[in-house]
Design a protein that fits this description.
By secondary structure, the protein is α+β, with helices and mostly antiparallel strands. The protein has 2 domains: 5-68, Barwin-like endoglucanases (Beta Barrel), CATH 2.40.40; 83-152, Sporulation related repeat (Alpha-Beta Plaits). It has 3 helices and 9 strands, in the order E-E-E-E-H-E-E-H-E-E-H-E. The chain has helices at residues 48-54, 93-104, 134-143, and strands spanning 5-7, 16-21, 27-34, 45-46, 64-68, 83-90, 110-117, 120-129, 149-152. The chain has a 5-stranded mixed beta sheet. A hairpin with a 2-residue loop joins strand 7 (110-117) and strand 8. The two termini are 22 Å apart. 29% of the residues are buried.
């Protein structure tokens, strides 16, 4: 419920999908981790956190566009993965750096990472952490109002 996840009838589990609310042009990247929706006319069920970012918690449904991003998650390498908590993705670089400056006051390891898609370039704001601290840090950031995604690369 609090992760950036979604259910889709056919996309493979682990697929990353950019979902754009066509009503307000907000976007979020979710990972497919469930099957559904099973309601006629619907193409994706979003977690509460993803729906909140897209501004559709109140209405419950919206017209959206889906874009798959790079297929499914790669297999876990044998070496330890880097762990990040992503707190936002912005199309305007200055907005990403404004969040970074705010987070720099309380957190170490805050970075802005450029990410290119067919729709444009996005600037992801991430906080580096360890596997053992990821859940706790994610809960803390979510408690401060950030939409969090745990990234293992």
């Amino acid at each position: 419920m609090n992760d950036m996840t979604a259910a889709h009838r056919t996309l493979p589990f682990g697929t990353n999908v950019m979902v754009t609310n066509l009503g307000n042009d907000r976007s979020v990247v979710v990972r497919i981790n469930d099957r559904g929706p099973f309601v006629r006319g619907r193409i994706i069920d979003l977690s509460y956190a993803a729906a909140r970012v897209l501004g559709i918690v109140g209405p419950g449904t919206a017209r959206v566009q889906l874009e798959t991003l790079g297929g499914t998650e790669p297999p876990r390498p044998e070496k330890a993965a880097e762990v990040w908590i992503q707190v936002g993705a912005f199309s305007v670089q200055e907005n990403a750096y404004a969040i970074k400056r705010r987070l720099d006051q309380s957190y170490r390891g805050v970075a802005v990472v450029r990410f290119k898609t067919a729709r444009g370039t996005y600037f992801r704001v991430r906080v580096k952490t360890t596997e053992g601290s990821a859940e706790k840090l994610a809960r803390r950031l979510a408690g401060e109002g950030y939409p969090v995604i745990i990234i293992r690369e």
